[in-house]
Amino acid sequence: MRVAYLGPVGTYGEQAARHLVELEALVGAELLPQLGIRAVVQALACGRADAAVVPVENSVEGGVTACMDALWEHGDLAVTRALVLPIRHALLGSGPLEGISEVLSHPQALAQCSQWLGDNLPNALQLPTSSTADAARMVAGSRFRAAIASQQAGQEHHLQELAYPINDAVGNCTRFLMLRRGERSHEGPLVSLAFSLHSNQPGALLDALGCFAHRGLNMSRIESRPSKREMGEYIFFVDLELTEGSQPLDAALEELGPFCEHLALFGAYPITNLAQL
After folding, report:
1. How confident is the model at residue 145 (pLDDT cuts 50, 70, 90)?
2. What is the share, in percent, of the chain residues with pLDDT greater than 90?
3. Taken in order 127, 60, 89, 164, is the CA torsion positive or negative?
């Protein structure tokens, strides 16, 4: 079993992948680090990996657009499990805090620590990288550069912990999905789907969402992404809680179909919240 994740070693993606491998009881799984979320999904789609772990949503910065776009583009992939991972960022470096003039990290991590950076390193240049662990690798040995990454990444690259934790929101967490090729389940406590509408008319979205509302399906998340075809055309990503089994979902999808130009069910799945353990 080969599991692709957003690398290199030391990322939160690796932490999530290890937890999900354990939850799925994938004994002897090999973790395959990839550069970029699209590369993670592509590794699964083209058969170089048997599963993929990707971040889909952060409690501070919202949806991870690269993940949503990739799910929409690959109709043969299914969500099989989710994990909510607490995120605790550290500022890592090889020199003193007062000498730091550049801070490197993934754009999401930089945004999640923006207030701390403004208060403590207001003049430091913020430079985006492909991952938090990659940032840790790039600052190793520098006296004026620091990285925002996990404590694990600091240990991997022998960096000093200059400050911890530095994320602005105490409850910062990220939801990761495990993706597999194959059939998309209708059974599970949470289901993810996406749809685009035939036309942008008054009440069109309300009519579509009504398919869920009058069946008592609670919508725990909704987010829109541009279709990339023309201005004002959107794809709507929705998560629903399935407290009464799959029958209400099946009925809602049947009713929703005629409203949609395209409808994609990503699958129903269990979710484990490590922030609550």
Report:
1. very high
2. 75
3. positive
